[in-house]
Amino acid sequence: MLLEPVVAVIDDDEPLRASLVRALRSSGYGVRGFASAEEFVAANGEVSCQCVITDIHMPRMSGLDLKRLLVDRGSQIPVIMISGDPDADLESRAAASGAICLLRKPFRTEALLGWLGEALNA
Predict the structure, then answer these.
(1) 88, exposed or middle or buried, with CB in 10 Å at 0-12, 13-18, 19+?
(2) CATH number of the domain within which 16 lies
(3) Is the per-residue pLDDT at 94 higher than 60?
(4) Residue 50 CB coordination number (10 Å)
């Protein structure tokens, strides 16, 4: 049984995605993991979730591309972006896209939970 609210975790790195799903579930969140942005879109994930946590760098559709798609569809779902890329420009690109924040891998679960709480209460 999933708990509310439902959070979508999108990352092509299966071990990281599984770890995030476990951590969020153990914190009381309903969570659904997706291996790609395309999988999330195909599952109509934006209808059933209250927040998206997505990696920026993924094959085919990036997290930034996904955020643009959601905006184009009129979605106001809060998006938290994550990345292991040290590129300093990513912070401004994530902010310009409307993302709540950019967390750099590796990040502390407490930091993610703090931003998730802010995103869901906004």
Answers:
(1) exposed
(2) 3.40.50.2300
(3) yes
(4) 16
φ, ψ for residue 55, nearest 5 deg: -70, 150
Quick: pLDDT tens for 23-35.
999 999 999 999 9
Would 116 be classed as within a structural domain? yes
Structure tokens given for 104: 């750099």
Number of domains in the chain: 1
Average pLDDT over residues 34-38: 98
Residue 94 lies in a domain: yes
For residue 75, give its domain range. 6-121
pTM as predicted: 0.94
Q: DSSP readout, 44-112?
A: THHHH-SEEEEES--SSS-HHHHHHHHHHTT----EEEEE----THHHHHHHHHT-SEEEESS--HHHH
In a domain, 92, yes or no: yes
